Amino acid sequence: MAKVPDLFEDLKNCYSENEEYSSEIDQLSLNQKSFYDASYDPLHEDCMDKFTSLSTKETSVTSQLTFKESVVVVAGNGKVLKKRRLSFNQVITDADLEAVANDPEEEIIQPRRAAQSSQSNMKYIFKNVIKQRCILNDTLHQSIIQDPSGPYLMAAALHDLDQAVKFDMGIYKSNDDSKFPVTLRISKTRLFLSAQEEEEPVLLKEMPETPKVIKDETNLLFFWESHGTKNYFKSVIDPKLFIATKQEHQVHMAKGQPSITDFEILENQP
After folding, report:
1. Under a CB-based contact definition with an 8 Å cutoff, are residues 50 and 36 in contact?
2. 165-203: pLDDT as tens digits
């Protein structure tokens, strides 16, 4: 191994003046304190924050200065999935990154529950009603009506829109100005749409009044997205799920096809 005398000289400067330094080839002096001794005198300021190791061989005394840096695998949503420690002077190639991603032995960093914790601490404050007496029609020209079998809704093709359920849409303020959390209440009632699990029917939940602040009852909230005449309502409690319909089927929560998740809004119906 080639000698690196200049680095070894730097290490000498890190020792106190009273410490005996030895450059014996076979071994370091027994009188010399360990470099990692906790009772060591304070290092000089220019020697701080250096990760250094000494090694001795039969024919030479060398010093090796080593820095470590992390290479990580990051998912598309920004989550760190895996990491590997590499030497600072090691060239990182595409093959290295692929090896980190595919090696099952790599340290896997478990995702934190920060998002869920943040969601549970979110507070939504009522602003105002932005749409009144609205009818929701799906792409099959079905309207939403009340299901006589229970506190549910269903989709049906109607000749008389007076039979369709009319909704009042109330908007809430959140910490994210790019999203529009809303409630859907059946007009002139205290019945609010309440999101459920995937493929389960949406419930009608009776509330004493329009909630001024929503913190725990987030299943009453939906993120409203509008793209032209198409409107989507994503569950706040599980944004992968949308209010959805099928032909002559109960209104339910779904991720997409074969269910219908986009609606046309007809406002201010009599």
Report:
1. no
2. 999 999 999 888 899 999 999 999 999 999 999 999 999
